[in-house]
Amino acid sequence: MPRSVSRPEFFLDRSLARRIVAGALREAGWSLRTHIEVYGARDQEVEDVEWLELCGSEGWVVLTVDARIRYRPNEVSAIRRHRVKAFALASGNLRARDQASRFLVNGDRVRAACTDLGPFVYAVYANGIERIFPA
Predict the structure, then answer these.
(1) How far apart are the C-alpha atoms of 113 and 38, rounded to whole Å?
(2) pLDDT in tens, 65-102
(3) Alpha-helical segments (H) within 1-135
(4) How far is CA 128 from CA 41, 81, 86, 94, 116, in A?
(5) What are the beta bridge partners of residue 133?
(6) Pick from 41, 97, 124, 130: most CB atoms within 10 A?
(7) Could you give the C-alpha distances from 135 to 42, 81, 93, in angstroms and in order?
């Protein structure tokens, strides 16, 4: 059963520095699962469309570095079909602590956006979020 919108459960894509980012978010009270926790030994073999489908069906909100996911036809189809909610760091060149900080600084904005129906992708900036998909 999906988590309530007031306390969403997040899924950290393998593109994030999972130990540091997951640790910082959990320390701040975020409920989450990492890609490797879900997929274990298959972690590197799992295609984006597979984990996007799982996130949609479980109601998990995606956190990723990959803002370009909104341009790939297979991923776009999966996001739409499974009504995925996703937040992608606007910069892919951040250190792990800075990745975590971007999500933490925007935590209230992220949780508020999660009350909207998916599908969507928001870009996460240093001090704000912006809906980038659908345009």
Answers:
(1) 24
(2) 988 898 999 999 999 999 999 999 999 899 999 999 99
(3) 18-27, 35-39, 48-58, 73-81, 96-105, 107-113
(4) 35, 27, 15, 16, 17
(5) 121
(6) 124
(7) 33, 16, 24
